[in-house]
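User: Some background: our group keeps a shared notebook of sequences we're curious about, and every so often someone picks one and asks for a predicted structure to add to the entry. Today it's my turn. The entry only has the sequence so far, pasted here. Could you supply the structure so I can complete it?
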Amino acid sequence: MARMSDFSAAEQKHHLDKIRDFPDFGATPWMEGPPLAQRRVAIVATAGLHLRGDRPFDSGSADYRVIPGDATDADLVMSHVSVNFDRSGFQEDLNVVFPLQRLRELAAEGVVGSVAAIHYSFMGATQMRALEGKARELAGLLKKDRVDAVLLSPV
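Assistant: Of course. Here's the predicted structure to add to the notebook entry:
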């Protein structure tokens, strides 16, 4: 795992500037909703994941890739561009960055109502402000799939 002390002063500043750019949403839920056992859940990750054969992520990509709910570990590839990103966890167990198997188990146990038909992955090594347009687009897709809860997997 990379530590801030491993980076040059310029890289440290770059990463700290990205953190300062995060909006503060507070602790209040954006909206009320049904119990978790009745919710339809999708995963949105920033792990740079995509299906084999899909276009890999480029440096600074602010778009996302679609991941079908029936995708298997073997179907997914990581093209995260950050050289500081440790891929060893992903290589051992996809659920570390994209817990689709765990989400399916929770649905089978009745902890969550259902698993969305489609999930999404961004490439997280990009400027937060650049993601807003695609995030709004994605919100519309999630709504269309009747998703009312999202498991965010920031990587």
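Suggested note for the entry: Residues 41 and 149 are 5 Å apart (CA to CA). The longest helix spans residues 132-144.
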